[in-house]
Amino acid sequence: MTLKTKHKLLSTTLAATLVATIANTSNKAYAEEAVTLEEIVVTAQKRSENLQEVPIAVTAMSGKFLEDSGIVALDEVSTRTPGFTMSRFNMAQPQLFIRGIGSTDDSAFGDQSVGVFVDEVYVGRAGGSDFDLMDLERLEVLRGPQGTLYGKNVVGGAVNIITKKPSAETQVKLRGSYGNFNRYELRGLVNGALSDTVNAKLSLSKVERDGHSTSSIDGRKLSDENNFSARAQLLFTPNEEVEFLLSADYSRDRLAGNSRDCFGEQFVFFPWFAPGQPLGASPCSEDPFVNEKTVNGFQNRDVWGVSGKITWQTGLGELTSITAYRNSDFEFQEDFSGSDANLVINNVDEDAKQFSQELRLGDVSEDGRFKWIAGLYYFNEKIDRLDNNDFRGNDAAVMVTPSPVPGLTWGQLLPLTGQPWGQAPFNIFFDQFNTTNSYAAFGQATYDLTQQISITLGARYTHEKKDAEINGFGFDPTGGFLAAPYDVSPSQSWNSFTPKATLDYKVTEDAMVYVSYSEGFKSGGFNGSASSEAAALRGFDPEKAKQWEVGLKSMWLDGQVRLNLTAFHIDYTDLQVFQLVNGAELVIDNAADATSKGFEAELTAALTKELTFNANYAYLDASYSSYITEDGEDFSGNRLTRSPEHSFNIAMTYQRDLGDWGVLTLQGDYAYRDEIFFNPDNFRLDDGRILVGDGSRSLLDAYVALEFVQQGLEVKLWGKNLTDELYRVHGIDGRGPFGLTNSAAVVYGLPRSYGVTLTWQFN
Questions:
Q1: Alpha-carbon dihedral angle through residues 581, 584, 589, 594, given to the nearest 10 degrees
Q2: Residue 238 CB burial class (10 angstroms; 0-12, 13-18, ≥19)
Q3: Residues 6+ apart with CB under 8 A from 737
Q4: Would you report the helix, strand and coil content of the chain in percent, each value rounded to 5?
Q5: Phi–psi pair at 52, nearest 5 degrees
Q6: Is the distance from CB of 496 to CB of 545 less than 8 angstroms?
Q7: Which of 324, 343, 550, 717 has the CA that lies 20 to 30 A from 669?
Q8: Residues 488, 222: Cα–Cα separation, whole Å
Q9: Bridge-partner residues for 257, per DSSP?
Q10: Nearest-CA neighbor of 320 among 365, 375, 239, 368?
């Protein structure tokens, strides 16, 4: 059976399963006590609405669901969201992709393609967006371009994280966990009223875990966890018309180096090699969790922010002001190759500060037929980043081409001693500083043409400017990674108009179909580690997306089944692609055009009063329409990176009231994802394995919990990746500038983990 036939059979089987589930539900539902699903409220359109009445592809997860399922990070959200994938180069550089669109750029001048928002505050740096998901009201994933209400850098979509606001109810909650890899977790919160008009809440979290990979240098554990997080909030409501929410959060990580392993057929030491080692090939490690890196590395991160949100009911409508400041500071050290060859050690130190201000006014007419919102937005960001590539093992000898010494050709060994550069190390630095100023005006309105038909029109105009300073310096005898020192200050601005139009038709009270057109915009930038002054000045163009989407939002069997379907077609212009060139040079260029199209389904069914079934499925056909790289390689027709053709998630939850014993809950969660590529060349080894990417992956999670309601106590046994699946979450091409090696530096996901959690709360 061919791979294509398997994929077709897989999608057909899943579709049949969904239909059969709905049919079986009908028979069981009326044989037992009638049950209905709870209404899901989202703020995807900047106002509270029923999910089923919002003509946007949105996956919403309540804070209770996240906590019950033990979901504390965005990568666990991605496995339960159709069309959403996520990988990590390291703790400071998460990479979010929706419908095949995302970014792996980590320089001071690039942006993400999937925006992350915390309480409506845009988080500019990727390293500041991947934090502990504690004490949330809900999390929403908006799939596809969201350029009208959410602004720039949402060409792929947006992740909307809403924290739980303080309330007047007195609440104390404590939670402790212990698991394998010596993992422990302590969480707590206290909430209540300080006065008749002021409520407050404090949430704290501490998580530690030994690494799941071992260093061959000294036996140290790599890829560990060591995080402390805190959030404090004050809610002031002086009267019924005004509400003021003040929030502050802090997150601190102190980690060992990331687990990186050499994968493939061999690793060849060139154009530099380690002293005392013969020139030639070295096999990659056979054990993916034994790292033969030459340095263990480290990862440190501090992220904090403050925000103030004022909501005022005026005669003109609801006026909202959101003022926020955020800071992210991180440093890390990584061995690029993941092998025992003394090659490239990457050192990064970055500090980013951002300020944002949003003002908006919105209202709903008395008859409810006309809804509108309009606003202004300002964003300022300053990033100071030092990126260093330290080419180790060259104090004894180096191989160079073209040669700085007349008569020396490729293949000869060049001792550094006695040459013009003396004992200078092969060490390159890129000092990057960027200031971004972004201004926007936006508006959106919905009008009910009839009781069944509504039309929505919206638009956003954005002006953005980036002022850069790039200083490339150090010593490179090859001239391939740094042709000559340079110090440049490029500056450029861009304007973008991103409209949106939607027509929705309410077929019945429980079913709505819609068709929409939307656009997204991501600004251009500059290459922070360019090899030459000309390349640093040239930069890259903005990225734009145009999407057509049709969808169905429906409830069946008197609210017992929720079924939402979406089909989409997205055209991308000047798609920004981040690549590793010549083994160590990280550059961005614009892949001329790309197309993403597909189908997504989400199903929730209350099979009985005690049994709930959840499933989602995504089919994705995402490829480069036209992409010829600067060195002439043609990647046209290749799949976009991190875009699986098929992916699905199935979960069953059983909950039973045991009377005086309490409530018993059992849940199983299975997630499947097709193979993905991390590189646009889609390269495979001779045996068919993907070199820079990952094969198909299946993850099985489960838990059983017993809640003693009267005592406010819950005991939970849980397990993740129970089948101990070996899978990769990131990879960097290690084939070198001449393609003589078939190796990659890869990062593997967490193996099987399990533990016990105790939760106590007082209300």
A1: 70
A2: exposed
A3: 271, 480, 581, 582, 583
A4: 5, 55, 35
A5: -75, -10
A6: no
A7: 550
A8: 38
A9: none
A10: 375
pLDDT of residue 24: 52
90 φ/ψ angles, rounded to the nearest 5 degrees: -160, -175
CB atoms within 10 A of CB 508: 9
Backbone angles phi, psi at 150, to 5 degrees: -105, -10
Regions of the chain short of the pLDDT cut 70: 1-34, 265-283, 341-342, 392-425, 478, 580-586, 736-741
Nearest Cα residue to 745 out of 264, 270, 392, 387: 264
The DSSP letter of residue 77 is H
Question: 143 - beta bridge partners?
Answer: 157
* Structure token digits, residue 108: 């001071």
Q: How many helices (H) and strands (E) does the chain have?
A: 4, 45
> Which residues are paired to 222 by β-bridges?
213
| Residue that the structure tokens 């955020």 belong to | 326
DSSP per residue over 186-240, as a string? EEEEEEEESSSSEEEEEEEEEEEE--SEEETTT--EES-EEEEEEEEEEEE-SSS
Report the pLDDT value the prediction gives residue 132, as an integer from 0 to 100: 86
Position 90 scores a pLDDT of 79
Q: For residues 672 and 696, give the distance between their C-alpha atoms in angstroms, rounded to a whole number.
A: 7
Q: 210, 335, 212: which is closest to 262 by C-alpha?
A: 335
Element (H, E) at 761: strand 753-762
Q: Write the CB contacts of 151 (distance below 8 Å, at least 6 apart in sequence).
A: 115, 122, 377, 379, 438, 440, 442, 460, 462
- Measured CA to CA in angstroms, residue 94 lies from 86, 212, 328, 755 at distances of 7, 19, 14, 26
Kindly state which CATH superfamily the domain 3-762 is placed in.
TonB-dependent receptor, beta-barrel domain (2.40.170.20)
- Tell me the C-alpha distance between 733 and 481, whole Å: 16
Give the pair of three-digit tokens for residue 6.
């398997």
Spatial separation of the C-alpha atoms in residues 215 and 718, rounded to whole Å: 28
Beta bridge partners of residue 381, listed in sequence order: 354, 436
Distances (CA, A) of 708 to 175, 658, 715: 14, 10, 8
Q: What SS3 class is residue 750?
A: coil
Give the angle 133-612-15 at the CA atoms, nearest 5°: 100
In the 8-state DSSP scheme, what is residue 661? G
**Positions of E strands within 7-71:** 41-42, 49-50, 58-62
Look at phi and psi of residue 322 and say left if phi exceeds 0, alpha if psi is from -120 to 50, else beta: beta
pTM (2 decimals)? 0.90
Q: Which two structure tokens, joined as six digits, stand for 301?
A: 């991160």
Token digits of residue 49: 């609405």
Place of tokens 């554990």: 221
By CB atoms closer than 10 A (0-12, 13-18, 19+), residue 64 is exposed
User: Taking the alpha carbons of 65, 66, 69, 75 in that order, is the dihedral positive or negative?
Assistant: positive
Query: Residues 90, 68: contact at Cβ < 8 Å?
Result: no
Nearest one of 622, 542, 537, 529 to 575, comparing CA atoms: 542
CA terminus-to-terminus distance, the chain: 58
- According to DSSP, the β-strands at 157-163 and 114-118 are parallel
Contact 149, 519 (CB under 8 A): no
Identify the three-state secondary structure at position 645.
coil
Is residue 230 within 8 Å of residue 205, measured between CB atoms? yes
Which pLDDT score is estimated for 538? 86
Q: How many angstroms separate the CA atoms of 45 and 146, rounded?
A: 10
